């Protein structure tokens, strides 16, 4: 059976769609389980059960190069001028499959155990409090620049051992690299990503050299020790892992924070309930991530023919798993369009699932809860100062700024 076309409502390059993709998602869910999207050649998957199943299906992968050459898979190699980006990206565990993925994740996971994350709690909560205090002292400002961004950047940089003076470099490099995860990125986006990849790689190669000479109590030093003792991590894997942790370690948290507060400002009854009862913070974090997830789409390659709802998706194709649509699936979430901070049955997939489940999920939850608690405590009358401007990006969806007054 052929998959139906996605229809005009799904338009990831339209500002109106990016501002509110959820009506289009509802139309996709109602009209089928698989949709062919001609502009990217992908198969869109909008239902929660299918997304959850395909995230765990080993017949799909984030890469195919562990099994097939480009030509064998019916794909063309990326342009040679994009090589620095692909070398950096393709050696990170998010874009690897077992056994390489298993080996790298095992090494890195030691830094993200629940116990390790709990040891970070005092640092995270103090930093969140200090950042919010600065926002309050200024009478308001841009919530993204003042709190949402510096908190997770500082935390992951501290874990890795990035000197404080170098941290302003991280966000611009990250933003440029993440531009390549959008659908059909423009040439200028690719050029910016390549340039950032070259600069980021050179920076980390030099920092790794310094840590090798003078180890510290940080994750980079720990990865070097594992590499030097058992040759279990190549230098390129180390560099790619650090970039992935720095990028993933703050992009989702930054966007979850601003998307979440934007949702709260538009639902004053829910914000009032949260202000009245701070014990709602854990469930509020989960519900805000479900309601408007920062990662809207996750791509996987079809390594062997699969069938979804009677539609065969052949080897060599790519599925686009629509996290935002899955998180609003009425088959799983009662009244999914309603923001309900007391929702307890909340199996959202904003952190993905399967072997690529977000390794930093416990840390992200800690950071989101810490900044929310600090804002509720120190800025109890926080309100929107002006309509926020949304970034044009769809896959990683967030704001340019979120202006507030206290």
Unreliable stretches, pLDDT < 50, 5 or more residues?
none
| Portion in helices | 40-55%
Envelope shape: globular
CATH fold type: Cytochrome p450
Secondary-structure-derived class: alpha+beta
Number of helices: 16
Distance separating the two termini: 56 Å
Determine Rg (CA atoms, Å): 21 Å
* Assigned CATH superfamily: Cytochrome P450
| Strand order across the largest sheet | 1-2-8-5-3
**Largest sheet: number of strands, sense, barrel closure:** 5 strands, mixed
Overall average pLDDT: 93
| Oligomeric state of shown chains | single chain
- How many extended strands? 12
Structure in a nutshell:
A hairpin with a 4-residue loop joins β1 and β2. The protein has a five-stranded mixed β-sheet with strand order 1-2-8-5-3.
Write the layout of secondary structure elements.
Layout: H1 15-19, H2 22-31, E1 35-37, E2 42-45, H3 48-56, E3 60-61, H4 83-90, H5 100-109, H6 114-137, E4 140-142, H7 143-148, H8 150-160, H9 170-178, H10 187-213, H11 219-230, H12 235-265, H13 268-276, H14 281-291, E5 297-302, E6 306-308, E7 311-313, E8 318-322, H15 323-326, H16 361-378, E9 383-384, E10 389-390, E11 399-401, E12 403-405
Parallel strand pairs: 2-8
Antiparallel strand pairs: 1-2, 3-5, 4-12, 5-8, 6-7, 9-12, 10-11
Helix pairs in contact: 4-10, 4-12, 6-16, 8-12, 9-10, 9-12, 10-12, 12-14, 12-16, 14-16
